[in-house]
Amino acid sequence: MRLKKVQIGAVLAGLSLLASGCGGVAGGSGSSAIGCDPKETGPGVTDSEIRVGTTMPLSGSGAAGGIGTKEGQEAFYAKLNAEGGVQGRKIKPIVLDDAYDPSTAQKQMRQLVEKEEILVVSGGEGTPNFLGAVPYLNRKKVPAIAPYAPSDQLGGDKNPYVFMATVDYIQEFEILTNYVLEQDSPKKIALVGVAGNVGDNAKLGMEKALKDKGELLYVPETPGTTDFTPIATQLKKFDAEYVFLILTNADTGGLLQAMDRIGYTPKTGAWAGMSDDTYIKEFGALSQNMLVALETSSLKSDNAQVKKFITDFTAQTGKAPSKFNQLGWVQAQLTAEALKRAEGLSRGCVVEALESFENFETGIVPPVTWGKNDRAGVDAVGIGQIKGDELVVVEETQSLQK
Amino acid sequence: MTSTTTRSRTGTGAGAGAATRGPGLGRKLTRLTVFAVIAAVPPLLFDSYWVFLAAQVVAFAIATLGLDILYGRTGQLSLAHASFMGVGAYTTYTVSSYGYGPAVQLAAVVVVAVVAALVVAVPTLRLSGLRLALVTLAFGELLAWVIRNTTDLTGGTQGASVDPIVIGLLDSSEPVDAYLIALVPAVIATVLAAHLGRTQLGRRMLAVRDTELAAESVGVAVARTKITAFLLSAVYAGVAGWLYAAITGFIAPPDFDLFASVYLFVAVVIGGAGSVLGAWLGAAYIVLVPELFTLAGQPNLYPIVGGALLAIVALVVPDGIVGLGRGIGRRVRRARDGQEETA
Amino acid sequence: MIAAFSAWFLYSEHGLPVPVALILGTLFAVIVNSAIDYAAIRRIPEGRPGLDLVVTLGIFLLITAVMQQLIDANAHTFTSLGADTRTELGGVVVSVNDGVVVVLTAAIILGAYLLLNRTSLGTSLRASAEDAGIAQAAGVNVRALRTATWAAAGVIAAIVAVLVASRLSVDAFYMTPVLIKAFIAGMIGGLDRFWLPLSVAVGLGVYEALAVFLLGSSAGTPAVFLLIIVVLALVPKRFVNERNEVRA
To answer: Can you tell me the ipTM of this complex?
Structure first.
């Protein structure tokens, strides 16, 4: 009897909940027009400090990229703060670990925005994880400046608060495949990519370049895989002449080891992450002659800005920079420039400032341009090759548009 | 494993203790008042981030209440409870992507959770202990594989952004609204779970937990009881997944993997298996304690403390925080009675 | 994991010679394993279903978290046990490392078999596993035997971890899939038998490799887990009777 009463009560309460559910699903993202009021001060801004932040993989298989990028950002901000900061305020960067996991990134971004109250998102590293945080950033209308998260979902009007400074993987892998097709005529090419948007984009780029010139096998991979023997077996069975890779640095090394162990050593090509010194140091022997996309300028370049970056970074940290240090540095550089240009320290004014960038030279990435309806930033990629313990530039930065 | 050993313990919380007598009206009112006061604290006193965490506690409490029904009361070890949450969350995502609102979402979640529970429960009826844990683990891994390999349907490894639910004026993308939305099903789930111990079904569950053979010998339909426990627990987890998806707005396979299931297990054990209050305390533990470590500037210490605490609690206070509280309460009462007698 | 990860740490970060690092890593693992038994497993109260699993899970979480903190949270390549020179045998590419893995595995199996079946220590072990009370009454020092068993299990686990690491890479979680599959083999074959769980383990490995070869790399996981469900759901009841199951 008592149970029945409870059941009836529960059912009634449940029905009232369901009946009130007439509103349905809330959908759609807001407009990018948040406006600039120079007198307004955004969250995270005090008289002496501006808080910015982001999430990156600082642990797990993607940690190499995250740690390097974080170091680069911190070095730039330390130098900037020593020189007086921006608009009379020091920049306080907060970087949280997302372990390359989209769901963790979303939770960490919420923490940064709601608890740490950052003004803007300064950079970031890793595509799947950053994409996890993007819907939240859109809902909260928080500008994200130059995250390293190449994807066709970013850089367009679909996500108006994300300002990109790298090409997406469709372009990157189209350029890389075109380069291979100019040098060689492989009948079979394989791609192993991080399952999801990253791998799908790279596959799309390769298909665009290949058309009907060769057979393509795509194998999606889950980041953090420990045993690559199954993937190596599948690749060997397919017998591709070229294997393209878009995996974390640790996973790329793990797969090459597994392929080597079963006696399968095709020619390889990879995304820009393999141009990092830490990768070449650990897996260089397995990666000889690997073609690597270049999104940042070569550290051996004669460009005056590159030389200045190397000097400044070394002075700050006491060590030579790597590719991911470069990325972190340029992310902080673009964020600081936007804050400098902003008429007021609010999110709306920062967006307005970002939209004023036209061919802004960093020396590290190609000139950056953003506008009212332009969030792409850059559209060019170069190609390098791992030879010995060095990365040699084989083709300077080129755009698909040119 | 020593699963066939007959146990004589009785005081394992609401299940056993309350099986013989229900609380009086005064006691009920006191409990209701305490609950109302505690429930009012987050939206009135906390900032939006902590209200968001409180909403997560409420969602996880429904999941731990469900696991408590299965493990704490029926003695069935499941390492797929987070997978059932995943079933709820991904059903929500799929249904909402067709534009359906919360009523249809919830109905779909319940139906899919029941079907999933039957798929797991029926073939595993004769298993218990480690073998049951292993098979549930296998089901969990299979579900994770399906999610990872059906990108068009579920978002795959990349995860999926779930539209917030709107009920009247409440929008789950706002932390306070999410908290209030989650509170209603949580209260219903709590009342039902608390009441379960006083029903025949609840007593049958306890009998199956303590010894299947003896339960069978006195006419308890062991198979039916186990399946019912699985179904209830899966529906609880499914509803928790529905709320989790609506509150966080984003779901991905790691949210519902083996480690997530292990942490739900940790919550039930640390809170106190077999107790409604223990399930709530456990949910608060797995959501709030990592934040406390982050606040203290030591976020990496949480997994270490979590592991150590699980082992220590299981060894020293197997009835969890609730058992510890009851033990202290008994000692205080005994000391007070002793003093009165002396006086 | 403790053995291989700490060995990697010692030779890679502290420059110790690889053999010394491997020995120290193994010793460390044995000490930790024995300590786990002493501090936790033997103190688990009787008559609480699942409590041993809960304690084991707690220790598992603790160890992985501690190793991540003490060493680091990333994956690293592990040293090869022997030259990486490859050769082709009947269409199969093998290296010296593969040979070392196979030979050491066979030696461990043979050693364990002889220990259990041809020595008085083995007889005592089986007797105490069958019924600790009777074994104690018959004069077997069950406590000392138990500690020795955990130490021996630690040695075997440490060697296996190093063998696996030499073919993959090391991090705090790299042994989890191996552990799950070993556990599956033990559950299906029975923890109180010797050859059956071993045969199940080998069969499982061949089956998984075949599934990958025929259906692609993503087929391995569902193939293994579907098999477990089907086998445990259909296997005769006497195989799933937990009467003889030794606390793992």
So the answer is: 0.77
